[in-house]
Amino acid sequence: MRRLITGPISYLADLGRSAARGWDAFFFRPADPTPVGLIRLGVGLLLLWNFAVLGLDLHAFVGSRGWADPDALAFFRALEQDRWSWSLWSIVPDALLVPAYICCLVVLSMFAVGLWSRPTAVLAWIIVVSTIRRAPVIHFGFDMVVSMLTLYLAATGSGGQAVSLDRWVARWKAARQELRRIRIARPLDGPAGDGTPRPTVSANLCLRLIQLHLCVIYGLAGLAKLQHPIWWEGWAFGSLLGYAEFRPIDLTWLARWPMLLMFFSHGALYLEILYPVLVWPRTLRPLIVGLTMGLHVGIATTMGLYEFAAAMIVANLAFASGSWLRSLATGRNPEPIRVVYDGACGLCRASVAIGASGDPARTVEWVDLTAVDVATVDPRLTEGRCIESVHAVGPGDRIRSGFDAVVAVARRVPLLWPIGLVGPLPGVSQAGRRIYGLVSGNRTREPSRAARSDSPARPEPGAPARNRPEKKPRAPR
Fold first, then answer.
1. 201-225 and 2-28 helices cross at what angle (nearest 10)?
2. What is the rounded end-to-end Cα distance, in angstroms, of the chain?
3. What is the pLDDT of residue 119?
4. What's residue 459's pLDDT?
5. Is residue 124 part of a domain?
6. Which residues fall in a compositionally biased region of kind Basic and acidic residues (predicted)?
7. What is the pLDDT of residue 149?
């Protein structure tokens, strides 16, 4: 009799503790903020595009005598029984619409690149909601999705923890200070330290809120489709082919294969209904997210809803792995290149600080020639040549110098990719070599740092040792 009482009580107590631990691990375990940063970047670019379109006829969209004048706006609010809706555009006079619009573009630009991320995220959400409430006649799915994403980015304040100018500025300041303080004598460690974003609770909370919201969106959208016989019969996709007003591409030729149209219709229906369940297992997640993105590409193709499709694809990045996303930019374990720079030159140290802070994967190894013997990096290098210009060693046995070395570094550093793309072009490379030669020939060196020190430099604080084997010196050719 005693076990009949204590057993259920003990079970319920264990169940409560397990539920509490699961809740805490689901919402409050630190997570990689890289997906959050990419979502912020994607949403910011979409908002800039949306506001660029609004600027084509600003007074018609948000002016007092536009498509939705104050009387029409009051009608919509009364129809929706929404007494507490608000919009900052309602208090902006027509004479100040253009200055207010320019301020919005500046805020959205800062939000997109991740500058002052926390306040600009809040301001971006206010701008989005104000525009939606001021012009309800143009409100559709795109506005709902971007307002949802900006709300979670503003509420958690995690948008600037990765893929942002805020993070780059912080790393640049740390690298510049470190390069000024000591000489970097270890060729396998960059002066900016490990660039992997630190997992945070706020990033995990933002991702979980977006993930749960997506499950609600897809689940309810799929269940709502069951109310229409056209989805049961499998002709929903085929019916879209007849709407010439919306489709950007003529796909009527697909009507020759009715079974294919039925497959697309039923596949989209089942995918939306099962999305809230199948997206959580890690083995199925890449398949479900990939199919969902393909679904939105199909929506954009058949209905012309490009902005909505792009917003939903950006939102689905919440289920992507941060390490996998970073590998798209840096590759998987790429062979690093060693860059020998003149640590006695202030301009060189400033350039290294920019490159190191923009290289979170540390695919470039920076070597101060005043702290090491350059022959240990590669026997073909001499101190005199390295003083004249920067040298990049690798991958393989290739050595680049001057502007060519800068281009090689730019190809590895995501922040400098534009230089890496246009640098090798004819005309650009010749002009780049001339400019580099002029700058290199007129730079100054600090006598106090010019002499190479044979004593080991002090270790970098907080920079973990890299698990990469030391390369053996190559035999001279």
1. 100
2. 89
3. 94
4. 39
5. yes
6. 443-457, 467-477
7. 95
- Whether residues 355 and 315 share a domain: the answer is no
Please name the residue ranges forming H helices in 29-116: 34-54, 58-62, 70-79, 97-113
Residues 6+ apart with CB under 8 A from 371: 183, 184, 185, 343, 452, 453, 457
* Same domain (yes/no): 150, 294: yes
How many angstroms separate the Cα of 325 from the Cα of each of 12, 36, 41, 332? 41, 11, 14, 11
Separation between Cα atoms, residue 277 and residue 212, nearest integer Å = 11
Task: Please tell me whether residues 442 and 397 are part of one structural domain.
Answer: yes
**Cα 264 to Cα 251: distance, rounded to the nearest angstrom:** 13
Examine the domain organization and report whether 263 and 339 are in the same domain.
Answer: no
Domain total for the chain?
2
User: Within this chain, do residues 255 and 363 fall inside the same structural domain, yes or no?
Assistant: no
Residue 470 domain flag: no
Please state the pTM of the whole predicted model: 0.82
Distance (Å) of CA 335 to CA 57, 197, 331, 339, 365? 51, 21, 10, 13, 10
CA distance 208 to 26: 8
Range of the domain at 241: 34-162+200-319
Residue indicated by tokens 């749960």: 212
Residue count (the chain): 477
State both tokens at 110: 């800062």
Cα–Cα distance measured from residue 408 to residue 246, given in angstroms and rounded to the nearest whole number: 46
Side chain identity, residue 103? C
Burial degree of 181 (CB within 10 A; 0-12, 13-18, 19+): exposed
Counting other chains too, the contacts that 264-270 makes at CB distance below 8 Å and 24 or more residues apart are 264/237, 264/298, 265/231, 265/234, 265/235, 265/236, 265/237, 265/238, 266/234, 268/236, 268/237, 268/295, 268/298, 269/222, 269/225, 269/226, 269/231, 269/236, 270/222
**Averaged pLDDT, groups of 10, the chain, 477 residues long:** 78 89 91 94 94 88 78 71 75 88 94 93 94 80 93 93 89 79 52 73 95 95 90 81 71 80 89 94 94 91 87 95 83 76 85 83 83 84 87 85 89 84 89 89 77 46 40 45
Q: Do 337 and 308 have their domain in common?
A: no
Residue 342 sits in the same domain as residue 392: yes
Residue 457's pLDDT is: 45
Cα Rg of the chain, angstroms: 28
CA-CA distance, 476 to 167, in Å (whole number)? 42
